[in-house]
From TrEMBL:
Gene Ontology BP, a term: water-soluble vitamin biosynthetic process
Keywords: 4Fe-4S, Iron, Iron-sulfur, Metal-binding, S-adenosyl-L-methionine
NCBIfam families in the record: rSAM_HydE
Name of the protein this chain belongs to: Iron-only hydrogenase maturation protein HydE
């Protein structure tokens, strides 16, 4: 393997020193191969260690409904997927699953669902308040596009964080893959979340059909502009019951490079080693944790529901999901010299403003 090129080395050094890059420099890093990719991931890992230490935050995901009014071309939950067995958990079931997660040791609960208007806002607010007051956990919500007033009320009920992935920063690609929605409206909501005092999470899919390296650079620059507290970056995995079912999956290598560059530009952000990278490869999460990631989000959705939250095939196969996930990850992380952070996992970026 050849040594890294001078221009690559210069861009990498600039990213480490300043946390800033121009679009062309990001593209240069994303094209890294061989020793250059190794150097990129090592630099991202070093930045993670410098700013966030050796701990990993574990967040329990409860996917409480797989109904969705949207018809996104890449998602198995899409409205027109008639092959999917649909479910809705009751608030009591959600609370019971969260209580079980808390008993295992999780201090953050992530409530995730398709865009399902069957849950009344008041009902969700009561659930958030109960989770905060009775279980003493941080609460992350990921339930899609809502009104500003709905976001405000959920924040007032105690929600700490909101995850709203922008998916792709290419407006034309966004519109073509998410019928009835626009990139502009999605970004507007991300700004609302910031204004309302949430710790904001966004993120993108790597390897979407029609995506370019330039649009991936735009994704990273958008995350930098938004100054997100968390960024979920995962590969595209085709679902056979979607219009993109026949396309190839995204590359694990490219996903790791996007993750690594994002870490260099957002040294204080929480970056998950996603379930999607584990679906592509048994070593996917471990490699992500060595490329700048510092969060793992095990799926604690109870059976029989878990198998039906089929955003993409193979999602329920990776190890470290389900019951006893907390203890399993403690053991796995110790093997790579990392340990679980047992706190709430709030952003280290001016934490007090979120309390």
């Amino acid at each position: 393997m050849s040594a890294p090129r001078e221009e690559f080395a210069a861009a990498l050094a600039k990213a480490v020193a300043t946390s800033r890059l121009e679009r062309e420099e990001i593209i240069l890093l994303l094209n890294a191969q061989g020793e250059e990719m190794e150097a990129l991931c090592q630099a991202a890992d070093a930045v993670r260690a410098k700013y966030l230490g050796r701990t990993v935050h574990l967040r329990a995901v409860i996917e409480f409904s797989n109904y969705c009014v949207r018809n996104c071309f890449y998602c198995g939950l899409r409205r027109d997927n008639r092959r999917l067995s649909r479910y809705r958990m009751t608030p009591a079931e959600i609370f019971t699953a969260a209580r079980r997660a808390r008993a295992e040791g999780f201090r953050t609960v992530v409530l995730q669902a398709g865009e399902d208007p069957s849950y009344h806002l008041r009902e969700l607010c009561r659930l958030v308040y109960r989770l905060k007051s009775e279980l003493d956990v941080a609460v992350t919500l990921s339930v899609g596009d809502l009104s500003r007033e709905a976001y405000r009320e959920l924040r007032a009920a105690g929600a700490d964080r909101y995850l709203l992935k922008h998916e792709t920063a290419d407006p034309a690609l966004f519109a073509s893959l998410r019928p009835g929605t626009t990139f502009t409206a999605r970004v507007k909501r991300l700004h609302w979340l910031r204004e309302l005092g949430y710790q904001v999470g966004s993120g993108n899919i790597v390897g979407l059909p029609g995506q370019t390296i330039a649009s991936l650079a735009a994704d990273i620059l958008l995350l930098k502009e938004l100054d997100v507290e968390m960024a979920g970056i995962g590969p595209f995995i085709p679902h056979p019951a979607t219009p993109l079912g026949a396309f190839p999956p995204g590359s694990l290598s490219l996903t790791l490079k996007v993750l690594a560059v994002t870490r260099l530009l957002l040294p204080l952000a929480h970056l998950p080693a996603t379930t999607a990278v584990a679906t592509l490869s048994p070593e996917g999460r471990r490699r992500a944790l060595k490329a700048g990631a510092n969060v793992v989000m095990p799926d604690l959705t109870p059976f029989p529901y878990r198998q039906h939250y089929a955003i993409y095939p193979g999602k329920t196969r990776p190890r470290g999901e389900g019951r006893d996930a907390f203890r399993w990850w403690q053991q796995e992380l110790a093997k790579i010299g990392r340990e679980v952070d047992c706190g709430y996992g709030h952003s280290p970026k001016a934490t007090l403003i979120f309390q």
